[in-house]
Design a protein that fits this description.
The chain has about 375 residues and is of the alpha/beta class. It has three domains: about 5-150 and about 235-250, HUPs (Rossmann fold, 3-Layer(aba) Sandwich), CATH 3.40.50; about 150-235, no CATH class; about 260-370, no CATH class. It has helices at about 15-25, 45-55, 75-85, 95-110, 150-155, 160-170, 180-185, 195-205, 205-220, 240-250, 295-300, 305-310, 325-330, 330-345, 355-360; strands at about 5-10, 30-35, 60-65, 115-120, 135-140, 265-270, 270-280. The strands form two sheets. It has a five-stranded parallel beta sheet with strand order 3-2-1-4-5. Strands 6-7 form a two-stranded antiparallel sheet. Strand 2, helix 2 (about 45-55) and strand 3 form a beta-alpha-beta unit. The longest helix has 15 residues, at about 95-110. The mean pLDDT is about 90.
Length: about 375
């Protein structure tokens, strides 16, 4: 068997942490390397979560440095690159922070060996996250019933591979439902039968059977999984959603990152004092520009020293938000309005939106969309 690496990036958020626990418990035979890309500007809760993970798994999590701070005068990797960009703060249209602090260190770390990268995107999400451009790297998604990336599914289900796929199906699929499986396997992709429809039809019949066929077909390709003699995840039929992630974290003793847990705030609505809840919806830098206004208020009220640091970055006309500066946001009248808007949005149509739903709404944004 060709030497290859198994890696898993720990962002400090819920999904990657739960995936590390999940794989370590269910697939101990996989020699997984764990790593984290440190921006130097994470919340303390993030670093504490990583410490608890190391203790729980009995394995170290390698810290990837985007820059050697021994050779630069800046306080953190983020500050170093901020200086390089002339004080230009990152934004949704210019995410240099993700590129320089997350993606480039990751690409440098994986090198050129065949590598399987395990990604914690859940079954209730419809995205693939960051996919390395290196042909030697393959992403796998253990939390989804479809563990394969889009490019793999396109390859094995293409009309050009239809005959090969069906031949493998005839030898792999159990006799009692092989005909039902072949009914869809033999049907070519067309405007009336999309790749997604075909994939879902086959998965509905048997996830593990589909996985086994894909595994066999990958053996004739350069995909890293195809270089293995055995890949235990082909038998995995789990489809884990947000509730399952929180359960894994709580049951393991690692716990949910503290910044996810809702805290109460008070706001006056039509002369009546109401109580709402707020929290942070993602991991990442404490000044992440993807934060909602209510999350900036959360930071101000629960980490005032970090809010002050975030304000210090706003100079020379650069700010974290297009609409206002943090100096403007911290005004008590503005804070009250943000809380009011948030409360009304969360209780629209007399239906209170849970903090889990708020996290679901935020998933897929920020560097968490790459490193979950």
């Amino acid at each position: 068997m060709t030497t290859l690496r198994h890696i898993l990036g720990i962002s400090g958020g819920k999904d990657s942490a739960a995936l590390a626990i999940y794989l370590n418990a269910l697939y101990p035979e996989l020699d997984i390397e764990y790593y984290t890309s440190d921006t130097g500007r994470e919340l303390d809760e993030t670093y504490k979560l990583i410490d608890r993970l190391e203790s729980k798994m009995g394995k170290s999590i390698k810290k990837l440095d985007a820059v050697d701070l021994h050779n630069v005068a800046d306080k953190s990797p983020f500050d170093h690159f901020l200086s390089m960009y002339g004080g230009y703060l990152p934004s949704s249209t210019s995410r240099w922070c993700t590129k320089k602090l997350k993606l480039e260190p990751f690409e440098n770390y994986i090198g050129e060996l065949p590598t399987i990268s395990y990604v914690g995107i859940r079954g209730d999400e419809d995205r693939d996250g960051y996919i390395s451009k290196k042909q030697t790297v393959q992403s796998v998604f253990p939390f989804r019933r479809n563990i394969w990336s889009e490019d793999v599914n396109k390859l094995v289900l293409s009309n050009g591979k239809l005959g090969t796929f069906c031949e493998h199906a005839k030898t792999i699929i159990p006799t009692h439902f092989v005909n039902r499986f072949l009914e869809f396997a033999e049907k070519p992709i067309s405007p009336n039968f999309s790749l997604k429809q075909k994939l879902n039809a086959l998965l509905d019949i048997s996830v593990s059977s589909y996985n086994k066929i894909v595994f066999e077909m990958l053996k004739s390709t350069d995909y890293p999984v195809g270089k293995l003699d055995h890949f235990p995840l082909v038998d995995n039929e789990d489809n884990l959603v947000l509730e399952d992630i929180f359960k894994i974290l709580e049951d393991s003793g690692v716990g949910i990152p503290a910044y996810y847990k809702p805290l109460e705030y008070e706001v006056e609505i039509n002369g009546e004092l109401k109580k709402g809840t707020y929290s942070r919806s993602r991991s990442g830098c404490f000044f992440c520009f993807y934060q909602q206004k209510i999350e900036w208020v959360w930071l101000l009220e629960h980490h005032p020293e970090l809010f002050e640091k975030a304000m210090e970055y706003e100079k020379d006309g650069y700010s974290w938000m297009d609409s206002e500066t943090l100096e403007e946001l911290r005004n008590p009248i503005r804070i009250a309005n943000i809380k009011k808007e948030h409360y009304l949005r969360m209780h629209r149509n007399n239906q209170s939106k849970s903090w889990q739903d708020q996290i679901l709404d935020a998933d897929g944004e920020g560097c968490a969309s790459c490193f979950v």
